């Protein structure tokens, strides 16, 4: 061994270094091999370099110095340390020596629910559908991220960027959300708005192909979504009948048509004060624009649309209808309901989407009436429910009347016009039971009076648990008509999903186009939800997305940092090992167990502990 002095010139500056080298024999002749760098400062006078090299050589051979030399010992220790091995570009050795007590785990992100949502997005071909609608790659990526938010952890567009950084969305989509701001999401809503119809049509076609869906039954119902704020810039925001029990807030009304398998066919947004009966023509126009006119299909609607003009509109388009009759029409069949003969007993099975629902018995009786068939239905379980609801509303109505009477008596409300307006509001608040009471204000005595109309109430009590179905289809049996109508509960289930796990309400947007697109994203998320639940149903498993989402939340993506003996740190970004329940879910959905391809990143020793080579910015795609 010997010590060699080297210089290197970079620009106008010269760098000096001292190397401990040894001569080795190679096929190409003798060569100098660098054993260790001693730094820029000379270890001693040049005349002593050879002696120092010999002493180092003796120490390495196990012949220590009689008199300890700290400087010499330090050099020997450096020589004994293995030198870092260079790895060819693109290849990282999986054999390293690490300091086990310095291993770190960081950037832990929830992955399971987002991963399943992403796989369903791919299965439905939504990126291709968005591309055909003219959206750029970035717009498609943002739309998927916003839809997955509604599916996994719904929040406002203002809060979405932070959520995207808290989950493994970047790892799964292969995109960075580090600098994403909410204004980019608002602009994306604006880009989506004019393309909603085309996207919904493409999605209908895709689902029809993938799931071989029936197109002979359409289930239509409405719900409302309320707003926070005045919504002065949205002409559709208005106060009306609130299904959310928030009459104090402005709202919009949403009409939704589902197919028999539960997949959305079309949705429309109406003014918040639009009556149910005034929406049928518009929704049928929208349905035909998305899926075309399917002659002979059956449209199932609830009693809010059971008006002659609506039924005529349905039949004029060459559809059939099944509808629950209004209360006044049901009262006309009181004698038939009281007759005990001619009833068919039907067992109501558990709903596939509600396995906790108890089996119940329903009695159905048919009566032809001109071009229609009327089906009278009685249910003991429904009877108790109707009675409880009626009694609750009746108690609340009387309580409100007592409060109003007290205000009139104390003259805190004395204007006759305002008193009549207050009476009208109470009747509007409790329409189910207000017709059983006679309410009057006596201006002479300045008092409020009400009395029970016992004849009407007696009829209502007799008809608890009873309802009437009407249809122009006479080819269906009592059991077929009942089971077809009860499918309408799937729309109610869809609304519950949108308002609970998908958290559609309340809406904070103020602009009409953004409100409509916000609802559209929720509908897209519901498509993913139905695709997941239907896959489980097809496997004979009754579960809900809410349950699956909770179970999948423990499957995560994590970064493991391994400090190596040579001073470098190896960071490995990968998904945690799926638990048995995770693998069971993925197997049923027929998706890979691996959430993402592992990403390895080296951080060299001279960078220190700074994470400048952030591995989470370079993502592996599953």
Overall shape: elongated
CATH superfamily of the largest domain: Ribonuclease H-like superfamily/Ribonuclease H
Largest sheet: 9 strands, mixed
The total count of helices amounts to 22
Number of domains: 4
As residue ranges, the low-confidence spans are: 607-622
Query: Which structural class do the helices and strands define?
Result: alpha+beta
Overall residue-averaged pLDDT value: 84
Calculate the terminal CA-CA distance, rounded to whole Å: 52 Å
What is the third-level CATH name, the topology of the largest domain? Nucleotidyltransferase, domain 5
Helix content: 40-55%
The total strand number stands at: 18
Question: From the 3D coordinates, which CATH architecture of the largest domain would you assign?
Answer: 2-Layer Sandwich
**How would you write the strand order of the largest sheet?**
7-6-5-8-9-15-12-11-10
Rg for CA atoms: 37 Å
In CATH, what is the class of the largest domain? Alpha Beta
> Which range does the strand content fall in?
15-25%
Features:
40% helix; 4 domains; 622 residues; disordered C terminus; alpha+beta; Nucleotidyltransferase, domain 5; nine-stranded mixed β-sheet; elongated
